[in-house]
TrEMBL record:
Residues 1-136 form the MTTase N-terminal domain. Pfam families: Radical_SAM, UPF0004. The keyword Transmembrane does not apply. GO terms for molecular function: 4 iron, 4 sulfur cluster binding; metal ion binding; tRNA (N(6)-L-threonylcarbamoyladenosine(37)-C(2))-methylthiotransferase activity. InterPro entries: Elp3/MiaA/NifB-like_rSAM, Methylthiotransferase, Methylthiotransferase_CS, Methylthiotransferase_N, Methylthiotransferase_N_sf, rSAM, rSAM_horseshoe, rSAM_sf. This is MiaB-like tRNA modifying enzyme. Keywords: 4Fe-4S, Iron, Iron-sulfur, Metal-binding, S-adenosyl-L-methionine, Transferase. Its cofactor is [4Fe-4S] cluster.
Amino acid sequence: MRVRLQTLGCRLNEAELESWARDFQARGFTIVEDETAPAELIVVNTCAVTGEAVRKSRQILRRAQRRHPGARLIVSGCLVSLDGGATSAGTAQAFPLSSLLPTSTPPASSTVASDGLIVVNRDKDRLVELVLAALGLDSGLPHPSATNAMDLAAPLFARGRQRAFVKIQDGCRYQCTFCVTTQARGPERSRPLPEIVREVERFQDSGIREVVLTGVHLGGYGADLGTDLTHLIERLLNETAIPRLRLGSLEPWDLPERFWSLFADRRLMPHLHLPLQSGSDRVLRRMARRCKRDEYIRLVEGARAAIPDLNLTTDIIVGFPGEDDDDWRQTFELAESLRFGHIHVFGYSPRPGTPAAGFANPVDARTRRRRVGELESLAHRSRLQILRDQIGKTVMLLHERLPDAFEGRPRSGYTPNYLPVHVHSAAPIGEGSLIQVRITGLDAAAGLLIAEPTGVEPMAPECIEPAQA
């Protein structure tokens, strides 16, 4: 039986999709990557972090209906966990698609399934098991152990076949007033540390060269287990030989002083995504954020002093209720001074059920759009400067075969600090090779560094030296 899996949203969603792919494969199913190819099961991992994410999730579901008439649709993720209605724990429950697609028209063909299966976030780790049981497909199929499932092929959907996402925790204990994820994902739950170490080891044994740790509240890892993220990273660096370890988004208040010392091991990549959200303390208080403006600045200064060639990226919400001209000026000026390598700009989108959705003094749409445009222009200029600063440096590049193109050009991989590079090389370069390259230029239109191999043989991870200007 053929299964098509699709996701949008965060890296955690991608990590979950990878896990489902391995589970389906271990039970004898064929994973279909081509969206137009026939499939009997369609699994969609939805997102609801913004109104736009909800729109895109519904668009994917409608497209799946059109392209796969008669296929059974399985929907999980934050959209259905918030809007799909109550479900019993530990079940994959049937639901009418009209409940998720309220504006959709009746299907033209009677062969299109009128209902699907919903698996809410709290049951995601058992999605394959629950779906097969609900469809009566579990009898006679192998029930592999987690170890056997990990022995399957490299990731199908992650960003590059040599990179894998590892989910280390789920849920969040904080209540930022704009955030719907806490409702959708529930309380914090951390995976046992030895289990994570074993998963990274198995990825390494299967040829994966880079692992990205993901979670809803990554920095909160281990609070329910008597440990913490710093200890987990230490264990991974000491007990595995994974060439590259990368971190997902981290809340700025979660990082202890000893965290920076971890980056002395060059296998921990010098890229941090630290959400700022606003540069105004007044707005940050209304958001119920736990890091003030000056605290964030000191954190960035400490990180840059400790981590050579750090690339710092962030999230900023524009047009939060009550954001006046002075608040906006503070945010813009702070973003300009901190020189982010990338800014994920969110125009504020009220999410039902969040405190901020009922706040007074909403920012009008025209002002919000103008501010978004101003910040996106600043972000573009800042990123180009970060890219220009790399020219002339020699770095280790993980050469990847990526499934898409970047502005019409193939991306050859990423620098340690997560900047995209295209390598000009007369000789073929093996997928998954760690090669030394010299950054020679910049394709500004594509936002892409240009590099060439130095002729130095690929190096063992423990031999990698810091980039030199």
